[in-house]
Give the backbone structure.
Amino acid sequence: MKYYFPSSNGISCFNGKTLSTAVIGLDGGKKVVSDKTKNKIIYFNWIMFRGIQYFFCGLIALFSAFNISYNMLNLEESKLSKTISQKFYISARYFFILISIALSFLICYLVLGVFPAKLSFVVLGNSLNFRLRAFIIALFKVFLFYLILLVLRFLPSMQYFYKFNGACARNFNITKQKEVENIKFNWHRPLNFLNFFVFTLLFSIFMVSLVAININWWANLLVNLAIVVLSMGFCYEFLFFLEKYPKLSRICIITSWFISIKPNITQEEIAKVAGLESEISKGEKLSVSEDGMIALSAVYTEMQTKLESKERYEKSDVDWIIATVLNKNRAEIKLIHSITNKQYREIMSATERRAKGEPLSNIFGFVDFYGLRFDINKKVLSPRVETEQLVEEAIKIIVSNKFKDVCDLCTGSGAIGVSIAKNTNARVTAIDISKSALIVAMNNAKKHNVKIDFVESDLFKGLKKSRKFDIIISNPPYIESKEIEKLDEEVKKYDPRLALDGGEDGLDFYRKITQDACRRLNKNGILMFEIGSKQGSSVRKIMKENGFGETKVLKDYEKRERIIYGKIGT
């Protein structure tokens, strides 16, 4: 469970035994540090008792966030600070914190304690019932408390702090409710620590004033302390209940409005950086923003923000961009904590292009497919992940049936043919109508050291009439002509139309290929297609009409129809 705590210029994230802090530096850049921590925030998840832990451990965490973030700025100590440190043998920062706490308690005692009590006797006299008087005083103290919060909310320095708190709230989700992301004001969260703290204080003030115990000073003190401690537990459980129901959680705005303000993009990124760094470092002591290096967690969140703004965020895309620029595989980048400014610029340049809709395969000129790397360009369709399943099924059939002759029809980049040639002993013939596509496919075959017969042909027309195969595999164009303009920008703009347009109903190539395939297959030969998600029944009908039996439709990993194959003459 991650717990976020704001400071005046950054955010700390407590994640198990890891404490990571991200701040906005004086130069506007993001700085990140990570270390082990003994403060788990909540040690024992017991009802009522966990609220007491959250209150006190949260206060320690809040002060830690201020302390660490201040140290990260490397500010030069003033003469006054040095004098205080030498005279009192304590850091000037801690000295001012202690003074601030003492003054806060004194002001609260006078404004919320002595002043309301004295004023009540002046205004109300002795005529009112004791309990009614206590209730009025309690309401008056609540009003004064709100007044103090209101004044603080409009102080510029506090607004900046409250925006960081809003970023904390947006990333804090103790009940893991997905609906939270859809809440309009999701920077107002019940169990965000600052909201819990203020809510508990407000409730405690009201209850202590309402009970108004008057025995003797030490008995009064003990009873009031007990009320405060019980309030911690009760408030936590009440707010925890609200967390479970996103719509009900809006009730917390009665306190959250004063201490949580909608964050800007940079402040949201800081929260994400702190959270991500706590996952990456896993308690390892790190300072990943020194000597001109940039924290990878900061780069990751900046990429995420940029891609999300264009509704193009995919975690796999981010990993691929980083891994490609750093020349690492995706597993290796998990061990990297920082990058150079040059690497940062290359990564963000690729991210900008991706945000505009350009496919990663076009940006880098290659795509990883079935464990191999294929060069591609605008002349060929970039092979998709779904097609890997077509290759996987084809290899199983080829190996189990000991097929020797394979045809990759509409080969494009050669991804299907090369992958099969690399993983079987079959002879592969790759056919395409596009000479430009065949050049790309030939280069990929040479790159992976496989021998393939390449034929420039409109389907089977360029082959000898006697040429037959054990299995014909094809990923033909299958998009309906009218639907092409509705496709995502990265498909219709960067993939060749020749590789997409399947005619008026998207089935033109299935008809043409199937009609000729029955004469191009050996006995018990198999015809195998990749299909669109709603084309299974239509292609099956076409295959049956042309003598193919035992047809089988397979679904992809997203549970959509993706592959169909059948045997000739059955």
